[in-house]
């Protein structure tokens, strides 16, 4: 049993070394400028949509005369 565990440790040591090297190599590139996304515009649109949903959900239904 210990032979199998030892053999697995020896065989997987090379894979662990490659995985450690891959972590250093696969980092995303660093950009020099900040992303130019219109965050306030998007947040405003989301707020307007959420407000519309709240208004529609809280509207009272028009009941007919045949209730």
Protein topology:
Layout: H1 2-25, H2 39-58
Report a brief summary of the structure:
This protein has helices spanning about 1-25, 40-60. By secondary structure, the chain is an all-alpha fold.
Write up this protein.
The chain has 67 residues and is an all-alpha fold. Helices cover 66% and strands 0% of the residues. The protein contains two helices and no strands. The protein has helices spanning 2-25, 39-58. It is elongated and about 85 Å long.
Summary keywords:
single chain; 67 residues; mainly alpha; 66% helix
Largest sheet: none
How many strands? 0
Q: How are helices and strands ordered from N to C?
A: HH
Oligomer: single chain
Percent helix range: 55-70%
Low-confidence stretches: none
Count helical runs: 2
Q: Kindly estimate the percentage of residues that lie in beta strands according to DSSP.
A: under 5%
N-C termini distance: 79 Å
Overall pLDDT, averaged? 76
Which structural class matches the secondary elements? Answer: mainly alpha
């Amino acid at each position: 049993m210990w032979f199998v565990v030892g053999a697995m440790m020896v065989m997987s040591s090379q894979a662990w070394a490659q995985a450690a090297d891959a972590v250093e190599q696969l980092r995303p590139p660093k950009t020099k400028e900040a992303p130019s996304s219109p965050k306030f515009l998007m947040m405003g649109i989301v707020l307007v949509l959420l407000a519309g949903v709240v208004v529609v959900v809280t509207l009272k239904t028009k009941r007919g005369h045949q209730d």
